[in-house]
């Protein structure tokens, strides 16, 4: 059986590398959308397949109750949520985990460009169900 971390490590490392390039060029202090646009360019240059502002329905007991957008859905299997705040808070982690659960993704990244050094957190969805497919809205 393949180790979960190994299964995603090459791709998450490429994403993180792209984010480091953006942060080293721009530094901290910009709004989130600026980093999002720059990361889009950098990931394209690095050959990473992704959807930006990927929208998915939120389902509650078989009822569509709204939609949410993850900043990036990479290779149909990794969510990337960006922040540009002085310090990550519990609410940021909760949001990123909620996206993983809502989209049934196993792994995600929470990347904060707002600190002096880039802050990257790898997240795992403990409720992940391999048998379910992600379906774009």
Automatic annotation (TrEMBL):
Pfam families, A to Z: PDDEXK_3
Record InterPro entries: GxxExxY
Taxonomy, superkingdom: Bacteria
Protein name stated in the entry: GxxExxY protein
Species this chain originates from: Lacihabitans soyangensis
